[in-house]
Design brief:
single chain; Rossmann fold; 2 domains; 6-stranded parallel β-sheet; 4-stranded parallel β-sheet; about 45% helix
Amino acid sequence: MAVGIFDSGLGGLTVLDACMARLPDVPFKYFADSAHAPYGVRDSDDIYTLTTAAVGRLFDEGCDLAILACNTASAAALRRMQEGWVPRDKRVLGVFVPLIEALTERQWGDNSPPREVDTKHVALFATPATVASRAFQRELAFRAIGVDVEAQACGGVVDAIEDGDMILAEALVKSHVDALQRKMPHPDAAILGCTHYPLMQAEFQAALGEDVKVFSQANLVAESLADYLERRPEMLGQGQATSYLTTGDPGRVSDRATQFLRRKIEFQSV
């Protein structure tokens, strides 16, 4: 009865942690494609190939439902996967939907025409690939009008976090916020459009100022997953225990994961 959670590296652990807290009786299988991280600088075909390989492994591990806890994969690969790759008895979901639901205060199944929302100026911080895809702006436009989105490609942040260099990560966050504010001086809200970024949420908030509402995905995804499983309990797969898989060095990845979550995490090599 395991649910698969996939990320290019360790950022998806923020989603996993929130999901485990919200659904303590559900086992999870986490897959980190650390050998190929970061995805944010890759082209869409490369991202699609790597993502399908990883999700296929989660299906082989007994998961019927997989969450792409990677904004880059959600932006560049999810729609293509859902249209022609995902088996009929499996499901793959992304991380954009809960975020846009929260921003627009409307459910994903609400297909009424786009309408005005309270938030007018949104700063989007994401990887270069997510920014280039314009997937967030496209999905938002289906549901809201009058929202100005200014995107900032945050090169280097994921690499610094994966390397455990939080001093460099903090400096990069400040630099990217400065660059964004030169284009949009006073955003109403900020989207942390990469699951690594919640690890730096306090730094983003400090750089943006207290008046900016910062949307982070982990808790939103956890609530959305709980709602989905309540409606579709048959999507719980056959796995029985939480486990962690990586394409990278399991010792190194385990050490970084333990540092991030402040509890012992042991990855197995695939």
